[in-house]
Amino acid sequence: MSQVRPAPSRWRRLRSRVVAGAAFAAAFAWPAWAQPTFQVFDPDHTRFSFELRTRWGQKVAGVFPRYDGEVTTLADGRHQVRIRLATAAVQLGDSERYTRLARGERFFNAPLYPYIEFLSEPHAPDLVRTGGALRGKLTLHGVSRMETFVLSAPACARPGEDCDAIAQGSVSRYDYRLDGWQLALGDRVRFTMQVRLKPGVFKHHEAKPAESRSNEGRSNESRPADGRVPERKESFR
C-alpha cells in the first residue's frame, strides 16, 4: 500500500512554519548564551613598562602606573584584549626631570596625546597558554598602526590567574613621530606587559567593579562597554 503524502503546497507551508519557528527560537536564545563577557586587570599584579637605549648603550626605563583595560570573551569564544595607558602618569625611575621630559611635547606629549591604546585582533583563547603572536592596533602619539607583540610561554597552567601573562614587543618611535632627542636616543621602544586578571567574569551590560589601587600606587580604572571591545575616549577620573 502506498503512503499518502501531503499536497506539495501544504508541505511547503508546513516546512516554512518549522523554519520560521526555529529562527524565532534561535533569535531569542542567542543572547542567553552568546553575550560577551570580560575580566579586568588585577592592579596588584599588573605592570606596563617600556625601555629605550641611548646611543651609548645605556638603558632608559619607565612605567605606566595608570591604565585601564580588559580581556573580553566574544560571542564566538575568541578573546580580545584592550589596553589604555595614561601618558600623563608615565614615570622614569626616580628622576623628576626625565619624567617631565617624557611627558613633554618632545616625547609622549601627554597634553595633546593623553593615551596609548592597544586593541588586539580576536584570537583563540589558548594563545595565552601556548604563547605566540598577539597582533593588534596600537595608537601612539596620534598614529595608529598594526603591531605584533609576543606572548611568552607561561610559567603555570593558568596564566593570567595563577601567574603573569607576559607579552613583549618593540616599535619604531619614528613610525609614531616620537622623534625628539634623535642624537641621544635609539629608534626602538620596547614595551613589556605583565598582566593578571581579577577573579570574576562580567557581562558587558553589567557595571564593572569599583576601581582598586595597589600599595604602589598602580590603578586600574575600567568602564562597561557593549559587544566588542570599543576604542573609548573617556578620560581617567
TrEMBL record:
Keywords: Signal
Positions of the UniProt region annotated as Disordered: 202-237
Biased composition (Basic and acidic residues): 203-237
Domain Lipid/polyisoprenoid-binding YceI-like: 38-198
Position of the signal peptide: 1-34
InterPro entries for this protein: Lipid/polyisoprenoid-bd_YceI, TTHA0802/YceI-like_sf
PANTHER family on file: PROTEIN YCEI (PTHR34406:SF1)
Name of the protein in question: YceI-like domain protein
Protein's organism: Lysobacter antibioticus
